[in-house]
Design goal:
Layout lengths: L1 E9 L5 E10 L4 E5 L6 H8 L7 E6 L2 E2 L7 H6 L2 E4 L11 H11 L4 H14 L15 H13 L5 E5 L7 H16 L3 E5 L3 H4 L5 E6 L2 E5 L1
Parallel strand pairs: 3-8, 3-9, 6-7, 7-8
Antiparallel strand pairs: 1-2, 1-4, 4-5, 9-10
Length: 219
């Protein structure tokens, strides 16, 4: 679904922060992306989502050369990829329901068409009683789950999650991980960026380890 061939990334004229990245993310796969702080995990996630262009190398997404995608084609490809950002990126003036439904509203769908799906998903992530609350009154864990629900509402083929358990306590972290595992069981490929070794040790999944800009894959 996503393939990197000798990908490198630098910002401006600075040194490469990612070097010679070779990687394949297959259909229905599950993997952790880990490494020390500053290793480049967030930059790699942004390359996955096509919000950054590599300085060199080839990125293939759903069988297409990412560099050849036109401006009109890029949003369509991105809609097949769900992203949970580290800073949530919820809109404070929208309710939890409205934040989760936003990707569908942007597509022009009527609320009558998606309302039941949004409510069901909010209940699934434990926010059924918080759908009318605004982000400023949500806890960190509730914001995290709202961001996850927003990433899932479009039924993505790939889910990218950048430190999705970094702002929650261990019991909630395990609950969120069970949600990701169930999502993967239903057919979505999952990439979770985390530095939590104890959490990763609880799951038998491939590990992508970034260190000093280079990636090592442990199956």
């Amino acid at each position: 679904m996503i393939r990197f061939d000798n990908v490198g990334l630098r910002y401006g004229t600075g040194p490469e922060i990612l070097r010679d990245i070779n990687l394949e993310v297959g259909a229905k796969s599950f993997q952790f992306l880990t490494g020390p702080s500053g290793a480049g995990k967030t930059s790699l996630i942004r390359l996955f989502f096509l919000s950054l262009k590599p300085s060199r190398g080839l990125i293939t997404v759903f069988g297409r050369d990412a560099a050849m995608l036109t401006r009109n084609e890029l949003p369509e490809v991105r809609r097949r990829i769900g992203v949970v950002f580290q800073d949530f990126r919820l809109l404070d003036h929208l309710t939890t329901f409205e934040n989760v439904a936003l990707p569908l509203r942007v597509l022009g769908q009527e609320e009558t068409r998606y309302r039941a799906d949004v409510i069901e998903l909010l209940r699934w992530v434990g926010l059924g009683d918080r759908m009318h609350a605004f982000p400023p009154v949500l806890s960190g864990g509730e914001k995290q789950r709202a961001a996850i629900a927003r990433a899932l509402i479009g039924k993505p083929e790939i889910l990218l999650a950048d430190e999705p358990t970094g702002n929650v306590d261990p019991p909630l972290a395990r609950r969120l991980m069970r949600l990701f595992v169930e999502l993967n069981r239903l057919g979505t490929s999952v990439v979770i960026a985390t530095h939590d070794i104890n959490l990763m040790n609880q799951f038998n999944a491939r590990r992508l380890v970034l260190e000093e800009g280079r990636l090592t894959v442990y199956d």
